[in-house]
Amino acid sequence: MPRSPMAPPRSFLWSRRVFLTLLTGFVLLPVYVMVSSSLKPLQDVSGKFRWWPSGLTIRPYIDIWSTVPLAKYFMNSLIVAGAATVCSVVIAVFAGYAVSRYDFPGKRVFTVTVLSTQMFPGILFLLPLFLLYVNIGNATGIALFGSRGGLILTYLTFSLPFSIWMLIGYFDSVPRDLDEAALVDGCGPLGALLRVVVPAAIPGIVAVAVYAFMTAWGEVLFASVMTNDTTRTLAIGLQGYSTQNEVYWNQIMAASLVVSVPVVAGFLLLQRYLVTGLTAGAVK
Amino acid sequence: MTTTATVEARGRTASTRSPGAARGPRRTGRIRRIGLPYLLLLPALLLELLVHLVPMAIGIVMSFKELTQFYIRDWGTAPWSGIDNYRMSVDFNAPVGDALLHSFLVTCGFTLLSVALCWLIGTAAALYMQDTFRGRGLLRALFLVPYALPVYAAVVTWAFMFQHDNGLVNHVLHDQLHLTDEPSFWLIGGNSFVALLTVSVWKGWPFAFLIVMAGLQNIPKDLYEAAALDGAGLWQQIRRITLPSLRPVNQVLVLVLFLWTFNDFNTPYVLFGRAAPQAADLISIHIYQASFVTWNFGTGSAMSVLLLLFLLVVTGAYLALTSRGRRRADA
After folding, report:
1. Distance between terminal CA atoms of chain B?
2. pLDDT digits (tens, 9 = 90+) for B224-273
3. For residue B138, is it within any domain?
């Protein structure tokens, strides 16, 4: 988008070059360390730091799967983050639509309450939630503590406030004539939502889904308390590469890269949607 | 939200005259019309209750109890201790209160610096990348990588870089540039604050960049064109048009950054492990320590409640101030 019809002044161009070069260096440094260290033999990462491996090797990528049960953690993370994302998006779409299209008593209270949970420090309800899950488990036999279900339930609420807030903004920007037309054609309110409003709001919904997935994929605090050996997620499982006598830095870097690839690739593929979604939704 | 009501009314009158009505009358009873929004909100509400609101209420009850590991199995039976937990938390002459105050001050300083730097870098990057130039798309994707990386993968890489014997940072500062006489310790002692701040800014600025970039797209182009006609240069356009137009976006952005940074647990936990060094003892880690490592859940809950009160007051004051400013700007 050209901002002004004239060419930018020299000072702007020059400072832009300096700033963006420095920033690129800052951003790429850890990425370079991650990639290069994951291709080094163990003595390279245990001794003085080297910019270049003494001999390139892909052994770390083979060893990571046997040092810890990485594949199992991967599956757990995938199941938990995937399920949490799907549920969170569906629930946020319904709630966002209700707030955007209807007037009802208690609407303001609902919006403020949901949004204010965003400011609770996780530590505040970590222990009570843990106790609540244990109590529910004892009372009903539904195992929430230590199970994937409990983690899914927890994670999907983490992204709800932001998702609902963003979708309210997004649905507000979808012209109401569209739903009206659908109602005229004999759709019920839900039909109008699913057939007209949701398709029109796809960028916003994608943005919300990406956010929900990333939140669940990277969460550490609740995963550290609420998982056991069989349900452990990547966030906790990666700690298994540090043993009493040796820290396998090359394997840690390789594993970090492997667990990052799906998220980063997905994020970069969908980033256009993300900016569009934010533009119409949250940033108004 | 009067528009909603009118649209609804119009939608209803339209639907009664609609060709769809010929296919038999639709059951749009009054109950259903009023009940529908509540029905749509029900799942969100139930989950918020289960995961946020009920646990928070339990947390508040727990903070008035003497809750040690002996009572954890059946926490309802733990003896009441009145406001002892709170008294202990704010007794700044005793070790517990003193450590909490220290942690609180460290967190405030850390949050201020981190939010300011994230906002500055993110805004500058977004402004520099507003116009197209060669490689802009690639850079934009690259700049979002720190935000997209899972927290533990990114932070564990930084932890490796900050290692005393085999880290990149000491190698560059000590072996290559000879800036330090001795290799420094980064993850213990006074330097840990700098290490934590670096990681936090590296991880956090792309979010500011993303939001400001989105905000820039909502500024009408004709504002710039009018300014250009009036002879305003690019720097002036940024100062007179871009930054003022971004104010509402920035108000929300700064608040979100503040809350995320203040409550950050993941970064220090992955960087330092279960016990953060004193200089980087963020409040979330501190309360985690107080609860899970010393098994004193009552005191931990009291600290959490105090923290929540602080956040409520700050957020409330912030919202009041910014909305008043906005009203004055509108008037």
Report:
1. 21
2. 888 888 888 888 888 888 888 888 889 889 998 999 899 998 899 999 98
3. yes
The answer to whether residue A11 neighbours chain B at the CB level (below 8 Å) is yes
| B165-198 b/e (C-beta count within 10 Å ≥ 16 → b) | ebbbbbbebeeeeeeeeebbbbbeeebbbebbbb
Domain carrying residue B154: 89-330
B263 Cβ partners below 8 Å, 6+ apart? A119, A120, A121, A122, A123, B283, B284, B311
CB < 8 Å to A124, chain B: 56, 59, 304-305, 307-308
Report the domain count for chain B: 1
- Which residues of chain B does A153 touch, with a Cβ-Cβ cutoff of 8 Å? 47, 50-51
Residue B181 sits in a domain whose CATH number is 1.10.3720.10
CB contact under 8 A, A94 and B142: no
> pLDDT tens, A202-217?
888 988 898 899 889 9
- Chosen for mutation from B65, B160, B309 (greatest number of chain A CBs closer than 10 Å) is B160
Using pLDDT thresholds of 50, 70 and 90, give the confidence band for residue B6.
Answer: very low
How does pLDDT run across B294-303, given as a tens digit for each residue? 777 888 889 9
Output the pTM of the full model. 0.85
Chain B residues close to A24, C-beta within 8 Å: 139, 142
Cross-chain residue pair A283–B214, CB shorter than 8 Å: yes
Per-residue pLDDT at A227: 84
User: From residue B240, how far is each of A118, B62, B177, B233, B326 by CA, in Å?
Assistant: 33, 52, 43, 10, 17
pLDDT of B24 strictly over 60: no
Sign of torsion over alpha carbons A45, A46, A50, A55: negative
Residue of B156, B165, B169, B229 to mutate when probing chain A, most A C-beta within 10 A:
B156
Cα distances from A200 to residues A49, A190, A253, in angstroms, run 52, 15, 41
Please report the pLDDT score of residue A138 as a whole number: 77
Q: Mean pLDDT over residues A73-83, rounded?
A: 93
**Band of pLDDT at residue A20, cut at 50, 70 and 90:** very high
The C-alpha of B166 sits at a distance from chain A's nearest C-alpha, in angstroms, of: 5
| B168 domain residue, yes or no | yes
Residue B224 located in a structural domain: yes
> What stretches of A6-55 show up as alpha helix (H) in DSSP?
10-37, 42-46
Tokens of A277: 């979604």
- Asked if B308's CB is within 8 angstroms of A221's CB, the reply is no
State the average pLDDT for chain B: 82
In a domain, B4, yes or no: no
